[in-house]
Each structure stands twice: as C-alpha cells, then as structure tokens.
C-alpha cells in the first residue's frame, strides 16, 4: 500500500462532514486534488476555507499547490517557528481566489482566519465572514478575512456581523489585532483598519478567479 502523504493524513483524520469535497478525491490513494481549485462558494451559498495552520501551532504551514501538500513556511531558507504566542485561531485561505501583489510577489489566495476549536491542516469548511483586518506591511496593505464556521455546532463565538463581533467580543478582536501586529519582530506591521462583513463579501468576490 502506498504511504499516505501529509495532506492525505490530515484529510483522513478530519471529520467526514467537513471534508467531503476532499474525501471524494481521496477514495483512491494517490489521487490528490489541488485544494486551491476547490470552489470558493458551496452549493449552500456559503464561502468556504481551507485550513493551513491550526490554532495553537507555532509552526506556520502553507499549501504547496504544485506538490498538493502542506509544507513549512520558510524564513531565510529555513522552516519558520514563531517567536511569539502560537496562532490564536486557524489560518488558511479562500480557495479559487488569487490576490495580486503590488510589490511583484507571486499572486496568492486570499487569507482567512477561522475562529473555532483547532482544525487540522487540510480541513475544508463553510464559513461566515464577520470582518476584515487590514494590515500594513512595508507599505503594502494585506487583507485578512476574519470568520467563524457556518455550522453553529462548530462555533466557539457566534457573531452575526462585524458590529455584533465588535460589541460582543471586543477582547477577541483586540487579541487578534495585537497578535498580528507582534507575531514577527522582523516584519514591522501596523494596523490600517477594520472593515465589515459586507466589505469581506465584496473582497472575496473581487479575487475569485
């Protein structure tokens, strides 16, 4: 029997109801679907996210589309380990999106942070965007979708809008903001602002390819 790849292992250890689109491809070993090419919008009209780095991890992962597997994020040619607190939520991307870089870096999927219990790399789930945190790094703006799972049973907080998120969970908002401003001492970052869930919807639609 062929050895399972890292992506396949993560997929096989994640709840079936979350990973149906991926598991359909994995019915035969060696069949690996490019997770970047999954639809951004599901049949139930929810956006979906692919998780790369789980909450609580200090080792950022990224999805390598060519190899169709998850690999360590690198810094100066070495796997990166956070010199700060672990990820406060699950970091990933919106599939079928591609954001152009103003500074000539390769286009990359729109990033998303899903607030929930720990989700393994390769988890695919429907989400509800509740806002956008806009960060300024070296003069370039980076938009981070902030979301919760669409399924109520998977939510740890239950905001229904950006205003609700800000009013009911100000500490969560502050923690996320401070984490992203301080997680990498070698990459100066400042907060450019927050936008609401309607802006998040338009932003995703803008970058869907």
Largest sheet: 5 strands, mixed, barrel
Helix percentage: 10-25%
* C-alpha-based Rg, rounded: 17 Å
Oligomeric state of the chains in view: single chain
Main sheet: which strands, in order across?
1-6-7-9-8
Low-confidence stretches: 1-14, 16-30
Structural class: alpha+beta
Order of helices and strands, N to C?
A: HHEEEEEEEEEHHEH
Shape from CA axes?
globular
- The overall strand count is 10
Content of β-strand: 25-35%
> Cα distance, first to last residue?
37 Å
Describe it.
The protein is of the alpha+beta class. It is 23% helix and 32% strand. A 5-stranded mixed beta barrel has the order 1-6-7-9-8. Strands 2-3 form a two-stranded antiparallel sheet. The protein has a two-stranded antiparallel sheet with strand order 4-5.
Give me some keywords for this one.
209 residues, alpha+beta, 5 helices
Write a concise synopsis of the structure shown:
Helix content is 23%, strand content 32%. It has 209 residues and is α+β, with helices and mostly antiparallel strands. It has a 5-stranded mixed barrel with strand order 1-6-7-9-8.
SSE arrangement:
Blueprint: H1 6-12, H2 16-25, E1 47-53, E2 61-64, E3 69-72, E4 74-75, E5 78-79, E6 90-99, E7 108-114, E8 124-137, E9 140-149, H3 162-168, H4 170-182, E10 189-195, H5 197-207
Parallel strand pairs: 7-9
Antiparallel strand pairs: 1-6, 1-8, 2-3, 4-5, 6-7, 8-9, 8-10
């Amino acid at each position: 029997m062929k050895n399972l790849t890292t992506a396949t292992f993560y997929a096989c250890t994640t709840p079936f109801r979350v990973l149906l689109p991926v598991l359909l491809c994995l019915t035969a070993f060696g069949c690996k679907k490019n997770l970047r090419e999954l639809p951004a919008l599901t049949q139930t009209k929810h956006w979906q996210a692919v998780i790369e780095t789980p909450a609580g991890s200090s080792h950022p992962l990224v999805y390598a589309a060519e190899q169709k597997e998850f690999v360590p994020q690198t810094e100066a040619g070495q796997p990166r380990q956070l010199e700060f607190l672990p990820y406060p939520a699950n970091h990933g991307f919106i599939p079928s999106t591609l954001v152009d870089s103003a500074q000539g870096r390769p286009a990359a999927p729109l990033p998303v942070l899903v607030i929930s219990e720990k989700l393994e790399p390769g988890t695919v789930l429907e989400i509800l965007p509740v806002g956008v945190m806009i960060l300024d790094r070296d003069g370039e703006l980076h938009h981070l979708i902030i979301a919760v799972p669409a399924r109520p049973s998977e939510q740890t907080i239950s905001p229904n809008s950006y205003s609700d998120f800000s009013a009911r969970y100000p500490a969560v908002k502050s923690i996320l903001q401070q984490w992203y401003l301080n997680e990498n001492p070698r990459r100066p970052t400042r907060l450019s602002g927050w936008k609401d869930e309607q802006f998040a919807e338009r932003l995703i639609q803008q970058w869907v390819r």
